Amino acid sequence: MAAARAIMRQVQEIITNPVEGVNLKPTEDLAEIEADVRGPEGTPFAGGNFQVSLILGEDYPAAPPKGYFRTKIFHPNVSEKGEICVNTLKKDWSPELGLRHVLTVIRCLLIEPNPESALNEEAGRLLLEDYDAFAKRAKMMTGVHAAPLRQAESTNTVPGDKKAVDKRRAMLKRL
């Protein structure tokens, strides 16, 4: 019960004060947090809208959530199945970090991939050996699989949008 309240507080805080480039999506299940993450400008992921899920186990916040890209992405720290490899979700986890920190770190991975802890070895190798080839492939995958931001904004909720605010309020009332 205390974990559920902590999750609700964290979700409320993110809805009230959004993480830059991240749009939390209303869900009824506190065990799975869904978000749209915008590809940062100046990266091969720019213009993309990536769906991300955080799965919160029964032992959250003592144990980290599991992170997944639901949108296919060519990135060294994301497996073919969408699993995210970042120290925050593994050895560096601390219950004090919370969901805001996790979402911020995931967006930062799009800016600064870490080829040393690659789940996608091909992406890691290309990033280290031939950045231009990596960027070309990542940009192509973004264009094919990540809905262009313009299109995503017309179909998904956008921070500040009245419908989005109403959906968020309704979600919080259910919590």
UniProtKB/TrEMBL annotation:
Task: Spell out the molecular function terms from Gene Ontology.
Answer: ATP binding; ubiquitin conjugating enzyme activity
Q: Does the keyword Transferase apply?
A: yes
Q: Where is the UBC core domain?
A: 2-147
- Xref: CDD domains: UBCc_UBE2S
Q: Which domain of life does this protein belong to?
A: Eukaryota
Which Pfam families does the record associate with it?
UQ_con
What protein family does this chain belong to? Belongs to the ubiquitin-conjugating enzyme family.
The entry's keywords: ATP-binding, Nucleotide-binding, Transferase, Ubl conjugation pathway
Q: Which PROSITE patterns match?
A: UBC_1, UBC_2
* InterPro entries, per the entry: Ub_conjugating_enzyme, UBC, UBQ-conjugating_AS, UBQ-conjugating_enzyme/RWD
Q: What is this protein called?
A: E2 ubiquitin-conjugating enzyme
Q: Which organism is it from?
A: Neobodo designis (Flagellated protozoan)
* SUPFAM superfamilies per UniProt: UBC-like
Upper lineage is:
Eukaryota, Discoba, Euglenozoa, Kinetoplastea, Metakinetoplastina
